[in-house]
Structure prediction request, 419 residues.
Amino acid sequence: MTSLNLLLWITSGIMFQLAVFLGIEYWRHWIRYRNFPSDKTEVGEILSSHKENISVAAWTGFRTFRVDRRIIEDAAQSTCSFYLVPVDEKVLPVFQPGQFLTFSLNLPASDDGSEQLMRCYSLSDAPCADYYRVTIKRVPAPLGSNYSPGRSSNYFHDHVSIGSLLQVRAPAGHFCIDNSDDPVILICGGIGITPMLSMLNVCLTQRPEHEVWLFYGVRNSSELIMGSHLNSLDSEHSNFHLWVCASRPHPEDVIGRDHKHRGRIDIQLLRALLPLKSYHYYICGPAPMLESIVPALEEWGVPDTQIHYEAFGPSSIKRTASAVKGKIQERETDKEIVVTFSQSEKQFKWKHSDLNLLEFAEANGIIVNSGCRAGGCGTCQTKLLSGELSYRHPPDYDPDVGTCLLCVSIPKTSVTLEL
Ligand SMILES: Cc1cc2nc3c(=O)[nH]c(=O)nc-3n(C[C@H](O)[C@H](O)[C@H](O)COP(=O)(O)OP(=O)(O)OC[C@H]3O[C@@H](n4cnc5c(N)ncnc54)[C@H](O)[C@@H]3O)c2cc1C
Ligand code: FES
Prediction:
């Protein structure tokens, strides 16, 4: 055997061993990603100590808060943070990153009276002893419409100033970061950044070694909220990966400085960038974003239990067959169910594709007041006159006896609602 042949044999042997090693590693990652539950370890004081208390309200009813500071957070000046301190000066309970506050507002009405409005705003910072922070975007009227602009958001921007008093319900909501060691992917669009800021600030301070990715969709640099804060986190933490994606950048926006990717956040981008790992995905943004990304993640093979999302308004996410399998089995045995709206004198057949009674009522032209649409604020509380309901998940708000929260209810039998 010549020395050239020997060299070839040795090189081939090394290449073969390397290929076997890489193949085994890939296989291990894939199996863990698809099938195995992730290791759970207790990490971080806030995340672990409040896991059990997620459904227990920190106070009942409304508590008065004073606005201590206001800070404009974007170049377009359409987003403002409000720092809130309790007037009673008592301890400020810790919350789960991702939870929201519910505000009861008394807005001046056009007839010189006042209009009561309930609105939810996510807590946008990590829990701290001194304040709660919410960050609110002005909602304009839809383009070309005669509707008036968003009532609550514009009221906050135009009338809520330092010293203003606000009636606030305790932190609530189930869209909270999991307290596992798993790496985390945060995906948000526009003002959907607010719960992510809370999650991000907690993750990076309490678990500095933890791998976190933030995919943040904006139209252009003017809409970027807390851009300098995000950029400093990006430069301070090697395990934090910030991807600002601009769908309609200004001509003067520069890739690499104002954003990292041109276009929307989509599954192709995630697949191209993310290593094969068992990530937990947290998604908050406009309904079209959720409706495209959530099913695409499921199709990609991300287990249902690792996809968590919240919409700030109505959204109907089409889950894949595996995600709804349990529910379909449950429904096949269902009898015909009729929902009666007594005050409206209307009756409709419940369709199993309907997500909850709030959406069902709205789809049938029944007007219902709603706030969080997640069982947290009590705005959709309605008297149940007959029949039986079940809750999709235990609500944070404790409804009065004989009433139900439509936004998290589905009928078990035919029901009559006082609506
Ligand atoms: C859990 C949760 C957390 C949230 N967190 C945040 C947050 O952190 N930051 C934030 O900014 N927002 C957040 N939101 C959204 C927030 O609660 C409000 O929905 C938002 O501020 C708009 O309320 P508004 O009263 O200003 O608008 P609304 O008065 O409710 O109006 C909304 C839109 O409808 C239009 N409109 C008015 N009348 C009609 C009509 N007849 N037909 C059709 N359209 C009409 C208005 O012009 C406006 O464009 C959150 C929502 C939820 C559920
Ligand atoms: S809308 Fe908030 S509890 Fe139903």
Observations:
- The pocket of flavin-adenine dinucleotide (ligand 1) is lined by residues 100, 119-122, 134-137, 139, 141-142, 147-153, 173, 191, 194, 312, 372-374 (CB under 6 Å).
- The CA atoms of residues 353 and 415 lie 17 Å apart.
- The first helix runs from residue 3 to 34.
